[in-house]
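Re: that backbone. Tokens:
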């Protein structure tokens, strides 16, 4: 079997499937080459059906189908896969604090950082809009900047 015959055979596409899968595994499932791996796997089966064409036409046909399948899989399945596997988002325990209630244990003013207690831990806090938040007031964590919580007064539904 010469190299040209190998390129047109299902074994070539199977080898590409393995190579693209190994690259994907090496990249810690960042969804970089998985689309090519899936396309080349489909080409293993498709390449058997194109035996009737001449070799040059067959090679261009294989390449075209492979590229078309890769693009279609990328466009149709990548957004779903990213949502499902949450690629690129590493959520830490600290991110869980955003949106939670906290209790002010040291008054927060425009010019003085205060402290809040949340989930049993004491954090340095500043007000979101420089408002004064007195001690023993409930507040909500808006965001985190470094090691400080940005908080705002909690609005009670009863008021």
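Recovered sequence:
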């Amino acid at each position: 079997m010469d190299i040209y015959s190998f390129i047109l055979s299902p074994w070539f596409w199977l080898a590409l499937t393995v190579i693209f899968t190994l690259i994907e595994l090496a990249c810690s499932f960042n969804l970089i080459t998985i689309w090519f791996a899936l396309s080349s796997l489909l080409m293993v089966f498709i390449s058997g059906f194109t035996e009737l064409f001449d070799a040059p036409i067959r090679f261009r046909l294989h390449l075209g189908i492979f590229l078309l399948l890769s693009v279609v899989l990328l466009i149709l399945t990548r957004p779903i896969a990213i949502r499902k596997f949450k690629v690129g988002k590493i959520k830490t325990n600290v991110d869980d604090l955003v949106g939670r209630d906290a209790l002010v244990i040291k008054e927060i003013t425009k010019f003085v950082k205060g402290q809040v207690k949340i989930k049993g831990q004491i954090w340095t806090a500043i007000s979101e809009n420089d408002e004064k938040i007195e001690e023993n007031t409930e507040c909500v964590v808006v965001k985190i900047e470094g090691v400080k919580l940005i908080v705002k007064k909690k609005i009670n539904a009863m008021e």
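The longest strand covers residues 138-145. Strands lie at 101-106, 114-118, 121-127, 138-145, 148-153.
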